Amino acid sequence: MDFPVQLARQLRFIQTSCAAYDQGEVDEGIRIAAALRIVFHDTKSSTSLMTHLRENTIDVLSTCDAPKPSQQMFAGMTNIELDPPRRRMEWVPKYAVPYGRLVPFNKWWFQEIVYLSKAETLEITRGDLVLGAANKDGGAHVDVKLEPRYEHVLQGLGWSMTVNPDGEPPVHVPCRHGHLSALRQMGYEVLHTPDLLKLAGMEVPSQAGVADGTQPGETVSPQLMDQPSKGLPPEFAYLADMGDLLKPGTPRFVMPSPRRWMEP
């Protein structure tokens, strides 16, 4: 078996799914999970490509931020995008970050916290998300019951917003795609990991693994997007960086009018 060729095949699958995700097919995050499981995960009955290639200690690009001690809830690899007029609240990938760095695979897969909820005593790693999606949520199998921690991410980790349209009752909008956006971000990471691409005989992007020296935890304050998605005016599209936005307690955003934001 030509394992470098098999690795290249899985990375091309991830490339295809990432491109489709970015075109709006967000369920492609589940396909990304299936490919990541084949590349990285060993079981008693199956062997990962990294084990076949004897590269289990490979360094992988990490774009995961680090939680601050005071944070009760945390998202390390995703932001929240709010679109109240369309009643949309979604987790979205961060893509490139200034604190990207290479970390050992075991830290990347087992240790770095992708989502944290202290109230739920919940810590989610990349491995948790990949196996939850691939093993039970349609990547390779579908189960009657999802793993509880994975399901909590799927349900938005308790994040929601309330939109108060003029003359209408308040509308509760849960936050969607926490699992899918983080899986898309993992796709970004592996496709920008130099040693992994070299093993597969693939071209290494010029900015693979490059960072500007910013350390995890040094986040940028939330700000209005200069060019909001879907052609919305700036007051209607808000991209929140979770490193600064998350605070103790369960957050809820209220929009009493189209031009004024409040966080009670």
Give the SSE order as H and E letters.
HHHEEEEEHEEHHEEHHEEHEE
Radius of gyration computed on alpha carbons:
19 Å
Structural class of the secondary structure composition?
Answer: alpha+beta
- Mean of all residue-level pLDDT scores: 77
Shape: globular
The oligomeric state is: single chain
State the distance separating the first and last CA atoms. 59 Å
Helix content: 25-40%
Instruction: Compute the number of strand runs.
Output: 13
Low-pLDDT segments: 218-264
Give the count of helical stretches.
9
- Biggest beta sheet summary: 4 strands, antiparallel
What does this structure look like?
The chain has nine helices and 13 strands. With 264 residues, the chain is an alpha+beta fold. The protein has one domain. The protein has a four-stranded antiparallel sheet with strand order 4-3-11-10. Strands 9-8-12-13 form a four-stranded mixed sheet, with no helix packed on it. Helix 1 packs antiparallel against helix 2 and helix 2 packs across helix 7. The N and C termini lie far apart (59 Å).
